Amino acid sequence: MERFDKEVAQAKKAFAEFAPAKWDENWKFVAGGQAWIDDSKYRVFRDWVMDHLIHHRAQLGVYLRLLDKPIPGTYGPSADET
Q: Is residue 56 pLDDT above 80, yes or no?
C-alpha cells in the first residue's frame, strides 16, 4: 500500500501539470512496422489505461468469487460487505 500511495501521489502531480491541450495530441504505438495504436492521448489513456484496469479489476472479482472470497467495494461498499 505504501508503494501504491506513493505512485498515486506521483500520478496526480503529473496529471495536474499536464496541459489540457496536450490531451488532443496524437500518440502512436508501433511494433514490427505496424501501428497498433494511433489516437489522441485522451483516447489512449481512456481505452488502453483506464478501461484495461477496469477489465482486470473485473477479472480479479471472478477469481475471488471462484475462491469463495468476498468482493471488496470499489465505489462504495460491495454487496459482500455487511
A: yes
Q: Give the number of other Cβ atoms within 10 Å of residue 25's Cβ.
A: 10
**What's the pLDDT score for residue 82?**
66
- Nearest to residue 41, comparing CAs of 32, 29, 33, 53? 29
Phi, psi of 24 (to 5 degrees): -85, -10
User: Cα 67–7–50 angle (5° rounding)?
Assistant: 60
C-alpha cell, 13: 502531480
What is the per-residue pLDDT across 4-38, written as a single tens digit (0 to 9) for each?
Answer: 899 999 999 999 999 999 999 999 999 999 999 99
Q: Which residues contact 74 (CB under 8 A, 6 or more apart)?
A: 57
DSSP per residue, 11-46? HHHHHHHS-GGGGGSEEEEEETTEEEEEEEHHHHII
